[in-house]
Amino acid sequence: MDKKLKIYIALFIAIVGGLMYAEATKTQPINWFPSYAAKHKTPYGTYVLKTQLPSLFPKTTVREIHQSPFQFLTDTTRSGTYFFVDGFLNFDKATFKKLLAFVARGNTVFVATNGANIDTLGLETQQMITTELEENFEIALLNPSFSKVNFTFDRPSTNLVFAKIDTLKSTALGKLMATNQEKEVVSEGVNFIEHPHGKGHFYFHTAPLLFTNYNLLKENNATYVANALSYIPADQPILWDAYYKSGKSKISSPMQYVLGSENLKWAYYMVLIGVLFFVLFKSKRVQRMIPVVLPLKNQTLAFTRTVANMYYEKSEHKHIATHKITYLLEHIRTKLHLSTSVFNESFYNHLAARSGNKKEDILSLFKTIGDIDQLKNITKEQLINLNKKIESFLEKQSRS
C-alpha cells in the first residue's frame, strides 16, 4: 500500500467519522406527523391524553384495545366507552353494525376524527370555508354550565363541521367558529354532537387534533377537552382504541427494529463501512478492465405509440379511457397526495384546493369518469370529451 493510498484512506475515515459525529449530535427536527398513538410524545401523539384519563375518570379503568372493533365486539359481554381518536376512520358496514349493537346494549362510543359521513345515523360533514384572507378558528362547547373557554388553533387544521344531522335524534354539543382579524365571527357550524341509539349514545367530534399532546398543553385548551369528555359516563370502563392509528406501534419489518435502536443502528452503519472498505481493497487486487457496453435504446415511446394505435384502430375506446382514468388517479395520489379510495365531498374540496381547479369542473370530470365506468363500450366522442376534461384539469393544476 503506497503512501498516497494511505492518505486517501485516512481522509475517508476522518470524513465518515465527522459525518457520524454530526449525525449523532445534531438537534432532531420536530416530528409533526399526526400519529394519534398513545405511546408517542410527539406534538400530534396522544400520550398526554392517555396518561391523564385515569385522573379524569378515577372510578373506572382504561384499557388499550389492539384488535379491530369487529373482532373485539364479537364477545357481546363487552361493555364500556369505546374511545376512537384518529385522523381518518372508515368503518365498514360489518364493523359499524357491531358498534351499533354495542351502543344499543347501553354502552358509549366516542369518535374524534376528520369527518364522519355515516348514512346509518344520517351524518354528513363538510369543510368550513370563508372568504376572509386571514381567518382564525375557535371551538366552543354549547352547554352554558361550562365556563366559556374556547379552544384555539395556531396550526393548520381540517376545520370540518356537520352539514347534515338527524335533528330529531342528534343533539349539538359544540361548534366551530371562524373569526376575522377583528375577532368577529364570520361563519360557524356544529362540530360535536351526541346521538342516542338504543340504551346508549354515540359522540362524534370532527377535530381529533385538539386531543393531541401539542394542543392539550397549549394555554387553557385542556379545560375544553376535560369538559368535552365529561359527557362520557364516569363509571364505565374506557376502551382506548389502539388499532385504528395513523402511527401504529407495531414493528412492520426487521430493518425498522434495527434502525429503531440507537446501538443497533450504529452497529449496522459500521458493518456497511466495513463492507465498503473490503470492496475498496478487494477491487484494487482483482478488478479487471470493464468492457464498454452500449445501453439498450429506449423503445418506450415507440412501444406506447404502437399500443395506442392498436387500441385506436380496433376502436377499443373503453380501454384507452380506462388507462387515462388510471393515470389520472395515480397522478392525484402521487403528485397531490390525496387518497382516491373514496370520492366524497371532502375529497372534492381538497382536490379543488390543491389542484387550482374549480370544484364544478372537478365534479363534472368525476361524473364523466363514473358514467364511463358504468358502460361496457363508449363512443369516440365520449373518449374525446374525457380526454379534454383530463387535459384541462392537468393544465390548470400545472399553472397553480
Describe this structure in words.
The chain folds into three domains: 3-27 and 253-286, no CATH class; 47-241, Rossmann fold, CATH 3.40.50; 300-399, no CATH class. Helices cover 44% and strands 16% of the residues. The chain has 13 helices and eleven strands. Strand 8 and strand 9 (185-197) form a beta hairpin. The longest helix is centred in the last third of the chain and has 25 residues, at 262-286. The radius of gyration is 28 Å and the shape is globular.
Helix/sheet category: alpha/beta
Low-confidence stretches: none
Percentage of residues in helical conformation? 40-55%
Q: Which fold name corresponds to the CATH topology of the largest domain?
A: Rossmann fold
Number of strand elements? 11
Roughly what is the average pLDDT, rounded to an integer?
83
- The rough form would be described as globular
Output the radius of gyration: 28 Å
Order of helices and strands: HHEHEHEEEEEEEEHHEHHHHHHH
Overall structural domain count: 3
What is the first-to-last residue Cα distance? 59 Å
- Any idea of the CATH class of the largest domain? Alpha Beta
CATH architecture of the largest domain: 3-Layer(aba) Sandwich
How many alpha or pi helices? 13
Strand order of the largest sheet: 1-11-2-3-10-9-8-5-6
Give the strand content.
Answer: 15-25%
Q: State the major sheet.
A: 9 strands, mixed
Short description:
The chain is of the alpha/beta class and 400 residues long. It has helices spanning 3-25, 47-56, 69-72, 93-104, 213-216, 221-229, 254-260, 262-286, 300-313, 317-335, 345-355, 359-374, 380-399; strands at residues 62-65, 81-85, 108-112, 124-127, 136-141, 151-152, 160-164, 171-179, 185-197, 200-205, 238-241.
